[in-house]
Structures are given as C-alpha cells and as structure tokens.
Request: fold
Amino acid sequence: MTGSDEHRDNGRVPSFSYVKLVGTDGGGNEKVLPMILRDRSGTGVGAMYIGKEVLNPAGEYVLRDAEGFEEKVRLVWTRRVADYVQMVGLAMVGE
Reply:
C-alpha cells in the first residue's frame, strides 16, 4: 500500500449497505439500479453494481436508501471487475 492509499483510506467508513442508484432512461422514465454501498468518505461513496447496464458518466443520478432519503451524486469512475460486476465511484453533489 502506498502513502497516498493510506491517506485516502483514513477518511473512509466501510458500510456495506444496499442502496439504489436512480436515473432516467432515454424516454425520461425513472430507472432504478441496485447497488451495494462499500464505503463513504467526506466527498463521495464507493459502490458495487451487479448488472448489465452501462452507466452514463454524463447522467444525472441520486442515491436512494431504504428509508427513501435521496442524495444527488455524480458518476466519477467505473471499473469492470468481472462479468456484470462494476466498481463505481460517486461524488456527492452539494446543492
């Protein structure tokens, strides 16, 4: 582990909870994708998505938890780690 990895890990809080990434499809209809939230930092979240959807970096998304609370997020990066499994980095968008 490098020094920058250690610094980055210091601000993360592992959570492993289920959330939904909510966006819209081409017709403007709500599209809900299940995610597993891995960790949260002061600026964003790391999550895992299992499915066939291709996430659009230009899309507008919100994270919705089990209680219905929503936070606007921006897709920062994705990395395919296996067939139909993507690691996802999302930044919180302050309003």
